[in-house]
Write a sequence for this structure.
């Protein structure tokens, strides 16, 4: 089975005057002509032709094939279904411009030109519980246009039909809680949320029902956050329910914010993924290039990548372990100390090599009481957005719209979402550290006279727990970064009000410190410290940002700090990180595909600018040490680097004159994409990150290759085997 | 769910910290509208005085 690279479009016009189910469908490549003929009901989607492997002997003559009988829209299956369930002679009838894949929930489109085959398709779908719509063709012009006014619908009972199926337990729970008041903004937002959830529940079925399940789980969290239920204390004596002070995180500002971002995400997700659902003619998608069939396969693919990362974090119990570690005693005597000067406290002089060999988080026992809180992490609501691009919110994560048609390429690679998910994993913990630090500084400022000496003493005080160690390290890096705006005299004045100084430091630099830690975390855990892949993927995804030229110095520092995590034990770690980065920059694809490559190389080779970069690396070094001592989990890293189906030898292939590591060795490796006939393989995998690492390495976006990749991510990820191996 | 929601709550609290100056909500709304909010607090400092940072790194403490 082949998928042909050439993009076709399927375009539909409804003709309500001829009946609710009348249609005129055109399949072709002439987009201009379709746009010229656009009417009020016109909708369009790209599709790609599938071509079965049949011998010349099996090919049918025109007389055998005949005129179009029907158009079939098959729901939620990948191309391999055709190969597995259809005979060679059946496929031979569909050989020429009759079998198509789309990225909508109706993921296969067939043009049937044979009465017997028409009956066979129906029976195959019945046998395998594949929902379909069959559009009965009455007229065809022989040039790719078909019209008719009769549609047959099939949705197996086991999957539920959108109109009659009962709500899931999750949905019943969610809707029974709905407390909707339409007379204020927050109430209206809740109304919108529950309407969106109802759409998700009502329209998703089969493999897409996980999208609704995810939404219901996120609703539980949103409900708790908005209503602050778990932060309410009930006084049994007085019968009064008191909101604890801690509920202020859901104050008047953040409540609408939570719902606004969640509703925006759900709105995009439902309108992208669950348009083009049955009845297709009445569920148009507002992502207009996909207005006919929607982008359900692409959304499911994106969701599966995010779900993989969420489940890795859940099964390694990363959150719970980190909360437990934060409470553990920080005993600095277990490390060798290398003091340049007596002024330095021990905890700031931990031997870097020993630090880099730490694995404190994984050594937290499973029986530790804080681990009792373990529960399923909610997969974020994922959606595509041209405006948001790759972006992380409290309950949502977005990827750029161009990824739908270009995720085969470095720049629109869905693997980049690991960065956003890393923010989800670390963001709250980093904030806790900063919050604790600011509380302590607040107490210092309000405990009486203060000044440089008191601040110095504060930073020399030994932390008692891992959490307070992390808090102090991050506080110190905040100070180092904010120092850049001060000279000595100004600093002495500023230290008379240290809380004000650090609140400003937090405003200016906390985001950057989170970015630095997230880059280290992502590189180490999700890229397996693979410098070439990391630099290539992140820099080519940044290259599409319009403002990249103006701020690439910050990104250079973030990259080097991340790369430095490999070399922290070495005195020359900064030089080694720079050397690694320059080496990747000197090779393809960055050498010619990254338009600011010469600027970055010039920056790193210029004496003055390199001096500045080295200063930033020195200032960030405590974060690299902190990562090893506090945030690192080799259990998480191992989970992200394994696939039960991958080639254990990590085969190497030569492409574009350079060697690349390959994790999989399917019959149809990615190199076949270079030909005009990329092939639809039957890969199975348990790790979408590694899969993306193999198949998102094209220098240019290509919609056919992307469609293939999205189908694989949506339908071929073997969750069952991954879960079995986790248990064992 | 509990441990995860703890982490998410912390993320939201970090927004609360920003909203002390009533910015977080506006910034988020603007992001959805494609607007551009120039946040003067987040501009890089005009000065890049590495001398003081260097002293702080070399001596651990600020000069008294």
């Amino acid at each position: 089975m082949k998928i042909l690279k050439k993009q076709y479009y399927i375009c539909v016009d409804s003709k309500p005057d001829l009946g609710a189910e009348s249609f005129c469908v055109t399949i072709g490549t002439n987009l201009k002509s379709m746009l010229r003929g656009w009417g009020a009901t016109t909708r369009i989607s790209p599709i790609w032709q599938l071509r079965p492997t049949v011998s010349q002997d099996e090919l049918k003559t025109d007389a055998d094939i005949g005129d179009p009988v029907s158009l079939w829209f098959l729901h939620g299956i990948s191309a391999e279904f055709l190969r597995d369930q259809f005979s060679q002679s059946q496929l031979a009838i569909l050989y020429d411009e009759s079998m198509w894949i789309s990225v909508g929930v109706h993921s296969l489109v067939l043009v049937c030109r044979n009465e017997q085959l028409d009956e066979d398709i129906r029976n195959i779908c019945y046998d395998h519980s594949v929902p379909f719509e069959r559009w009965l063709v009455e007229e065809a012009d022989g040039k790719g246009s078909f019209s008719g006014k009769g549609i047959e619908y099939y949705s197996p009972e086991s999957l539920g039909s959108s109109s009659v199926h009962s709500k899931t337990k999750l949905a019943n729970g969610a809707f029974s809680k709905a407390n909707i008041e339409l007379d204020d903004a927050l109430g209206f937002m809740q109304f919108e949320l529950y309407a969106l959830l109802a759409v998700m529940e009502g329209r998703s079925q089969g493999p897409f029902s996980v999208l609704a399940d995810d939404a219901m789980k996120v609703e539980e969290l949103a409900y708790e956050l908005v209503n602050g239920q778990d932060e309410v204390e009930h006084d049994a004596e007085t019968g009064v329910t008191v909101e604890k002070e801690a509920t202020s995180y859901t104050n008047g500002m953040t409540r609408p914010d939570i719902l606004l971002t969640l509703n925006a995400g759900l709105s995009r997700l439902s309108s992208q993924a669950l348009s083009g659902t049955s009845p297709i003619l009445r569920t148009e998608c507002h992502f207009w290039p996909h207005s006919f069939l929607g982008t359900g396969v692409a959304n499911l693919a994106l969701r599966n990548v995010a779900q993989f990362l969420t489940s890795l974090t859940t099964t390694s119990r990363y959150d719970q372990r980190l909360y437990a570690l934060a409470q553990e005693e920080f005993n600095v005597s277990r490390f060798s100390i290398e003091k340049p000067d007596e002024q330095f406290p021990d905890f700031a002089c931990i031997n870097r090599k020993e630090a880099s060999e730490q694995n404190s988080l994984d050594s937290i026992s499973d029986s530790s009481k804080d681990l009792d809180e373990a529960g399923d992490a909610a997969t974020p609501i994922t959606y595509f957005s041209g405006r948001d691009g790759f972006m992380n919110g409290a309950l949502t994560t977005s990827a750029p719209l161009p990824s739908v048609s270009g995720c085969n390429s470095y720049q629109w690679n869905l693997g980049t979402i690991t960065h956003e998910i890393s923010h989800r994993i670390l963001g709250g913990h980093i904030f806790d550290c900063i919050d604790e630090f600011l509380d302590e500084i607040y107490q210092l400022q309000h405990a009486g006279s203060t000044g440089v000496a008191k601040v110095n003493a504060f930073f020399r005080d030994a932390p008692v727990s891992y959490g307070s160690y992390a808090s102090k390290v991050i506080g110190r890096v905040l100070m180092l970064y904010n120092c850049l705006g001060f000279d000595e005299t100004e600093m002495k004045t500023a230290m008379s009000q240290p809380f004000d100084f650090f609140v400003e430091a937090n405003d200016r630099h906390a985001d950057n410190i989170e970015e630095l830690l997230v880059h280290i975390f992502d590189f180490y855990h999700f890229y397996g410290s693979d410098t070439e892949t990391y630099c290539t993927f992140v820099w080519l995804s940044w290259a599409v940002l319009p403002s990249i030229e103006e701020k690439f110095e910050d990104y250079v520092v973030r990259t080097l700090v991340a790369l430095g995590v490999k070399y922290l034990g070495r005195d020359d770690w900064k030089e080694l990180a720079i050397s690694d980065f320059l080496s990747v920059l000197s090779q393809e694809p960055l050498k010619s595909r990254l338009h600011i490559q010469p600027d970055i190389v010039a920056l790193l080779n210029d004496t003055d600018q390199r001096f500045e970069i080295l200063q930033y690396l020195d200032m960030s070094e405590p974060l690299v040490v902190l990562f090893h001592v506090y945030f690192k989990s080799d259990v998480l890293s191992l989970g992200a680097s394994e696939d039960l189906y991958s080639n254990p030898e990590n085969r190497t292939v030569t492409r574009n004159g350079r060697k690349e590591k390959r994790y999989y060795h399917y019959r149809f490796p990615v190199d076949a994409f270079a030909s005009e006939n990329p092939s639809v393989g039957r890969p199975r995998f348990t790790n979408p990150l590694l899969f993306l690492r193999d198949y998102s390495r094209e220098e240019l976006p290509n919609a056919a290759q992307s469609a293939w990749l999205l189908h694989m991510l949506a339908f071929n990820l073997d969750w069952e085997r991954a879960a079995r191996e986790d248990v064992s | 769910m509990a441990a995860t929601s703890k982490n998410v709550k912390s993320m939201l609290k970090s927004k609360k910290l920003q909203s002390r100056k009533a910015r977080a909500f506006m910034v988020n709304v603007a992001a959805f509208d494609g607007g551009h909010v120039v946040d003067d607090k987040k501009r890089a400092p005009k000065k890049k005085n590495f001398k003081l940072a260097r002293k702080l790194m070399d001596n651990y403490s600020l000069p008294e």
User: Anything to note?
Assistant: Chain A touches chain B through 78 residues (CB under 8 Å). The CA atoms of residues 276 and 293 of chain A lie 4 Å apart. The radius of gyration of chain A is 29 Å. The first strand of chain A starts at residue 2 and ends at 14.
